[in-house]
Inverse folding.
Protein backbone atom coordinates (compact mmCIF):
# COMPACT_ATOMS: atom_id res chain seq x y z
CA UNK A 1 0.00 0.00 0.00
CA UNK A 2 2.81 2.39 0.91
CA UNK A 3 4.48 1.65 -2.40
CA UNK A 4 1.33 2.59 -4.36
CA UNK A 5 0.94 5.76 -2.28
CA UNK A 6 4.54 6.74 -3.08
CA UNK A 7 3.95 6.17 -6.79
CA UNK A 8 0.80 8.28 -6.67
CA UNK A 9 2.65 11.14 -4.95
CA UNK A 10 5.41 11.01 -7.56
CA UNK A 11 2.83 11.17 -10.32
CA UNK A 12 1.27 14.23 -8.72
CA UNK A 13 4.70 15.82 -8.43
CA UNK A 14 5.47 15.21 -12.09
CA UNK A 15 2.12 16.73 -13.06
CA UNK A 16 2.87 19.84 -11.01
CA UNK A 17 6.34 20.13 -12.57
CA UNK A 18 4.96 19.63 -16.05
CA UNK A 19 2.43 22.43 -15.53
CA UNK A 20 5.18 25.05 -15.37
CA UNK A 21 8.08 25.64 -17.73
CA UNK A 22 11.23 27.72 -17.81
CA UNK A 23 11.10 31.04 -19.63
CA UNK A 24 13.63 31.00 -22.45
CA UNK A 25 15.91 33.95 -23.24
CA UNK A 26 15.89 35.99 -26.42
CA UNK A 27 19.04 36.85 -28.35
CA UNK A 28 18.96 40.30 -29.96
CA UNK A 29 21.47 41.50 -32.54
CA UNK A 30 21.96 45.25 -32.17
CA UNK A 31 23.20 46.97 -35.33
CA UNK A 32 22.38 50.61 -35.91
CA UNK A 33 22.08 52.90 -37.76
CA UNK A 34 21.55 51.49 -41.24
CA UNK A 35 24.40 51.88 -43.71
CA UNK A 36 24.24 54.65 -46.29
CA UNK A 37 21.48 56.89 -45.00
CA UNK A 38 22.00 60.25 -43.29
CA UNK A 39 21.41 60.00 -39.53
CA UNK A 40 21.02 62.72 -36.90
CA UNK A 41 22.21 62.70 -33.30
CA UNK A 42 22.36 65.05 -30.34
CA UNK A 43 25.31 65.65 -28.03
CA UNK A 44 25.64 62.55 -25.83
CA UNK A 45 23.72 60.25 -28.19
CA UNK A 46 25.05 56.91 -29.38
CA UNK A 47 25.72 57.28 -33.10
CA UNK A 48 26.95 53.73 -33.83
CA UNK A 49 26.04 50.60 -31.88
CA UNK A 50 26.62 46.91 -32.51
CA UNK A 51 26.51 43.76 -30.44
CA UNK A 52 24.69 40.67 -29.26
CA UNK A 53 22.57 40.78 -26.13
CA UNK A 54 20.76 37.89 -24.44
CA UNK A 55 17.72 39.05 -22.49
CA UNK A 56 14.70 37.74 -20.62
CA UNK A 57 11.22 39.15 -20.15
CA UNK A 58 11.22 41.24 -17.01
CA UNK A 59 9.38 43.72 -14.83
CA UNK A 60 10.59 46.96 -13.31
CA UNK A 61 9.00 47.20 -9.85
CA UNK A 62 8.82 50.89 -8.94
CA UNK A 63 7.52 50.70 -5.34
CA UNK A 64 8.13 48.58 -2.26
CA UNK A 65 5.34 46.09 -1.59
CA UNK A 66 4.58 43.87 1.41
CA UNK A 67 2.32 41.01 2.51
CA UNK A 68 1.61 39.90 6.10
CA UNK A 69 2.18 41.65 9.41
CA UNK A 70 5.17 39.78 10.85
CA UNK A 71 3.20 38.77 13.93
CA UNK A 72 0.30 36.47 13.09
CA UNK A 73 1.64 35.97 9.57
CA UNK A 74 5.14 36.17 8.20
CA UNK A 75 5.83 39.49 6.53
CA UNK A 76 7.16 39.36 2.97
CA UNK A 77 8.72 42.46 1.39
CA UNK A 78 9.79 43.03 -2.19
CA UNK A 79 12.08 46.03 -2.74
CA UNK A 80 11.93 48.07 -5.97
CA UNK A 81 14.10 46.74 -8.76
CA UNK A 82 14.30 44.55 -11.83
CA UNK A 83 12.61 41.14 -11.73
CA UNK A 84 13.38 38.43 -14.26
CA UNK A 85 10.80 36.01 -15.65
CA UNK A 86 11.95 32.47 -14.87
CA UNK A 87 8.81 30.34 -14.94
CA UNK A 88 5.40 30.35 -16.63
CA UNK A 89 2.34 28.14 -16.88
CA UNK A 90 -0.82 28.21 -18.98
CA UNK A 91 -2.17 31.30 -17.20
CA UNK A 92 0.65 33.20 -15.49
CA UNK A 93 4.24 34.39 -15.79
CA UNK A 94 6.40 34.41 -12.65
CA UNK A 95 9.01 37.14 -12.19
CA UNK A 96 11.49 36.36 -9.41
CA UNK A 97 12.96 39.03 -7.16
CA UNK A 98 16.51 38.96 -5.79
CA UNK A 99 15.51 41.67 -3.31
CA UNK A 100 12.72 39.83 -1.50
CA UNK A 101 12.85 39.23 2.27
CA UNK A 102 10.71 37.44 4.86
CA UNK A 103 10.33 38.63 8.45
CA UNK A 104 9.39 36.32 11.31
CA UNK A 105 8.89 37.64 14.87
CA UNK A 106 10.96 34.75 16.23
CA UNK A 107 13.62 34.40 13.53
CA UNK A 108 13.99 37.97 12.25
CA UNK A 109 14.58 38.96 8.61
CA UNK A 110 16.13 36.71 5.99
CA UNK A 111 16.35 36.62 2.17
CA UNK A 112 13.57 34.84 0.29
CA UNK A 113 14.56 33.73 -3.20
CA UNK A 114 11.51 31.67 -4.18
CA UNK A 115 8.99 34.46 -4.81
CA UNK A 116 8.24 37.71 -6.56
CA UNK A 117 5.61 39.25 -8.81
CA UNK A 118 3.37 37.36 -11.21
CA UNK A 119 1.10 38.56 -14.02
CA UNK A 120 -1.82 37.00 -15.86
CA UNK A 121 -1.29 36.27 -19.55
CA UNK A 122 -3.56 38.42 -21.69
CA UNK A 123 -4.50 40.70 -18.77
CA UNK A 124 -1.76 43.24 -17.89
CA UNK A 125 -3.94 44.68 -15.09
CA UNK A 126 -3.72 41.44 -13.10
CA UNK A 127 -0.57 41.82 -10.98
CA UNK A 128 -0.08 39.70 -7.86
CA UNK A 129 2.67 38.34 -5.68
CA UNK A 130 3.70 34.73 -5.23
CA UNK A 131 5.65 32.65 -2.72
CA UNK A 132 5.58 29.48 -4.79
CA UNK A 133 5.44 28.98 -8.55
CA UNK A 134 1.96 27.94 -9.62
CA UNK A 135 0.12 30.08 -7.08
CA UNK A 136 -0.38 33.58 -8.44
CA UNK A 137 -2.90 35.05 -6.02
CA UNK A 138 -1.29 37.02 -3.17
CA UNK A 139 -2.33 40.68 -2.88
CA UNK A 140 0.70 42.72 -1.90
CA UNK A 141 0.17 46.25 -0.55
CA UNK A 142 0.29 48.81 -1.96
CA UNK A 143 -0.55 47.65 -5.47
CA UNK A 144 2.69 46.80 -7.29
CA UNK A 145 3.61 49.45 -9.87
CA UNK A 146 5.34 47.57 -12.69
CA UNK A 147 6.57 48.23 -16.21
CA UNK A 148 7.56 45.50 -18.70
CA UNK A 149 11.29 45.55 -19.50
CA UNK A 150 14.03 43.32 -20.87
CA UNK A 151 16.53 41.96 -18.33
CA UNK A 152 20.04 41.18 -19.55
CA UNK A 153 21.30 37.65 -18.90
CA UNK A 154 24.67 38.46 -17.33
CA UNK A 155 25.80 34.83 -17.61
CA UNK A 156 25.49 34.81 -21.41
CA UNK A 157 28.37 35.91 -23.70
CA UNK A 158 26.97 39.41 -24.26
CA UNK A 159 29.07 41.94 -26.13
CA UNK A 160 28.23 45.43 -27.29
CA UNK A 161 30.22 48.35 -28.75
CA UNK A 162 29.04 51.92 -29.10
CA UNK A 163 30.38 55.25 -30.29
CA UNK A 164 28.93 58.37 -28.65
CA UNK A 165 29.05 61.92 -29.98
CA UNK A 166 30.77 64.27 -27.51
CA UNK A 167 30.64 67.54 -29.43
CA UNK A 168 32.82 69.84 -31.48
CA UNK A 169 35.55 72.30 -30.52
CA UNK A 170 36.81 74.34 -33.45
CA UNK A 171 37.76 71.79 -36.13
CA UNK A 172 37.96 68.92 -33.63
CA UNK A 173 35.17 66.36 -33.22
CA UNK A 174 35.05 64.41 -29.95
CA UNK A 175 33.64 60.94 -29.39
CA UNK A 176 33.44 58.40 -26.57
CA UNK A 177 33.90 54.70 -27.32
CA UNK A 178 32.34 52.24 -24.87
CA UNK A 179 32.51 48.47 -24.80
CA UNK A 180 30.37 46.16 -22.69
CA UNK A 181 31.28 42.52 -22.23
CA UNK A 182 29.89 39.79 -20.01
CA UNK A 183 28.38 41.13 -16.80
CA UNK A 184 26.67 44.42 -17.71
CA UNK A 185 26.66 45.41 -14.03
CA UNK A 186 30.42 45.91 -14.20
CA UNK A 187 31.94 49.19 -15.40
CA UNK A 188 32.34 49.36 -19.16
CA UNK A 189 35.64 49.88 -20.94
CA UNK A 190 35.74 53.39 -22.41
CA UNK A 191 38.08 55.51 -24.49
CA UNK A 192 37.97 59.15 -25.61
CA UNK A 193 38.57 59.68 -29.34
CA UNK A 194 39.15 62.94 -31.25
CA UNK A 195 39.36 63.78 -34.96
CA UNK A 196 40.48 66.89 -36.81
CA UNK A 197 38.14 67.84 -39.66
CA UNK A 198 41.10 69.46 -41.42
CA UNK A 199 42.19 65.91 -42.29
CA UNK A 200 38.87 65.19 -44.02
CA UNK A 201 35.25 64.52 -43.22
CA UNK A 202 35.59 60.72 -42.99
CA UNK A 203 36.58 59.32 -39.62
CA UNK A 204 37.38 55.76 -38.57
CA UNK A 205 37.72 53.71 -35.40
CA UNK A 206 37.76 49.91 -34.84
CA UNK A 207 36.30 49.17 -38.25
CA UNK A 208 33.74 51.99 -38.15
CA UNK A 209 33.83 54.49 -40.99
CA UNK A 210 31.66 57.62 -40.76
CA UNK A 211 31.22 60.46 -43.21
CA UNK A 212 30.47 63.69 -41.35
CA UNK A 213 27.83 65.73 -43.18
CA UNK A 214 27.47 68.54 -40.64
CA UNK A 215 28.55 68.95 -37.02
CA UNK A 216 28.17 71.48 -34.23
CA UNK A 217 28.73 71.34 -30.48
CA UNK A 218 25.15 70.13 -29.99
CA UNK A 219 24.27 68.05 -33.08
CA UNK A 220 25.83 65.91 -35.78
CA UNK A 221 24.59 64.70 -39.17
CA UNK A 222 26.48 61.72 -40.53
CA UNK A 223 26.44 58.77 -42.90
CA UNK A 224 27.58 55.33 -41.69
CA UNK A 225 29.83 53.71 -44.29
CA UNK A 226 30.80 50.63 -42.23
CA UNK A 227 30.07 49.49 -38.68
CA UNK A 228 31.95 47.49 -36.04
CA UNK A 229 32.81 43.89 -37.00
CA UNK A 230 30.15 41.28 -36.27
CA UNK A 231 30.36 39.68 -32.80
CA UNK A 232 32.46 36.50 -32.86
CA UNK A 233 30.08 34.39 -30.72
Amino acid sequence: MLRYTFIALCALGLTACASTQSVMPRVDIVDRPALGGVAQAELGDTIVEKGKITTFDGLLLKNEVTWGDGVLLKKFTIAPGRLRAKQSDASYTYYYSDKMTVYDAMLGTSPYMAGGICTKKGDPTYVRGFFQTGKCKSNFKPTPEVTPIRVTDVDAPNFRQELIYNGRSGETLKFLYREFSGDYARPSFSQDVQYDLKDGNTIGFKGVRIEIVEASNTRVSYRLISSFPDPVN
